[in-house]
């Protein structure tokens, strides 16, 4: 059975999550603070983590950063913090999704299923150097993109941006991370750069750039490559 680590100091919420998860055949571990969460994650290597940011001993973002140092296990943040900067911090640190409290249990479980499914698919894809879609093919080693019989000519910036997105299929990549990695640390507020270059990539790769199938915008947060 898949194992989920619930990191939350609200005992009533932990109980509700545990009951719902166990009813759907998940094994559940629970931690009320960050230190316990890190020890359980290392010991049991869960298939996913549900993580509150407001922990008594440390900020949940620090837990995300620590786990990302050694694992790509899905991390879904559960938080009462509604500000976009809190979401950006968690996503920049490596969280896979952000669910704002109060939330629907059905929606949370659907997001959990999606995150674990994407991780399984990503694991299966790791080691492969070619990404194939119905519209185009990307050779990550040769740094070439084919659309049908034609080679798509990309600028170095377009390639770097595309490479970052396709290397994390199905996962939201934040605006700040893309800007920092592609343009540099002094450009993390220049979101207009992303809009321009994403529009160029869509014109070159998407069948209908106005209604993209593969290069998806998550408004105010970042972009996602959907294989």
Task: Please describe what this structure looks like.
This protein is α/β, with parallel strands linked by helices. Helix content is 43%, strand content 21%. The chain is built from 8 helices and 12 strands. Helix 2 packs parallel to helix 3. The relative contact order is 0.10. The mean pLDDT is 90.
Would you kindly provide a brief summary of this structure?
It is built from eight helices and twelve strands. The protein has 227 residues and is an alpha/beta fold.
Shape: elongated
Query: How many strand units?
Result: 12
Tell me the major beta sheet: 5 strands, parallel
Strand sequence of the main sheet, in spatial order?
2-1-3-4-5
Write down the overall mean pLDDT: 90
Discrete helix count: 8
Order of helices and strands: EHEHEHEHEHEEEEHEHHEE
* Poorly predicted sequence stretches spanning 5 or more consecutive residues: none
Query: From the alpha-carbon coordinates, what is the Rg to the nearest angstrom?
Result: 19 Å
% residues in beta strands: 15-25%
Helicity level: 40-55%
What structural class do you assign from the helix and strand content?
A: alpha/beta
Ends distance:
27 Å
Tell me the layout of helices and strands.
Blueprint: E1 3-7, H1 11-23, E2 27-31, H2 34-44, E3 48-52, H3 60-68, E4 75-79, H4 84-93, E5 97-100, H5 105-125, E6 130-132, E7 137-139, E8 144-147, E9 150-152, H6 156-166, E10 173-174, H7 175-182, H8 191-205, E11 215-218, E12 222-225
Helix pairs in contact: 2-3, 6-8
């Amino acid at each position: 059975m898949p194992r989920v680590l619930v990191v939350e100091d609200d005992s009533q919420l932990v109980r509700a999550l545990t009951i719902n998860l166990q009813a759907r055949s998940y094994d559940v571990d629970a931690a009320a603070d960050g230190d316990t969460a890190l020890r359980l994650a290392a010991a049991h290597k869960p298939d996913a983590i549900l993580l509150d940011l407001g922990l008594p001993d440390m900020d949940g973002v620090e837990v995300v950063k620590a786990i990302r140092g050694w694992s790509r296990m899905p991390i879904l943040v559960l938080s009462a913090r509604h500000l976009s900067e809190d979401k950006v911090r968690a996503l920049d640190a490596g969280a896979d999704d952000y669910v704002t409290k109060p939330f629907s249990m059905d929606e949370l479980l659907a997001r959990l299923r999606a995150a674990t499914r994407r991780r399984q698919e990503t694991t299966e894809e790791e080691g492969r150097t070619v990404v194939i879609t119905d519209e185009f093919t990307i050779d990550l080693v040769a740094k070439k993109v084919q659309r049908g019989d034609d080679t798509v000519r990309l600028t170095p910036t377009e390639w770097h941006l595309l490479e970052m997105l396709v290397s994390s299929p199905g996962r939201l990549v934040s605006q700040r991370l893309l800007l920092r990695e592609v343009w540099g640390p002094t450009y993390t507020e220049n979101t207009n750069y992303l809009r321009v270059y994403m529009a160029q990539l869509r014109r070159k790769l998407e069948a209908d750039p106005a209604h993209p199938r593969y290069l998806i915008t998550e408004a105010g947060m970042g972009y996602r490559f959907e294989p």
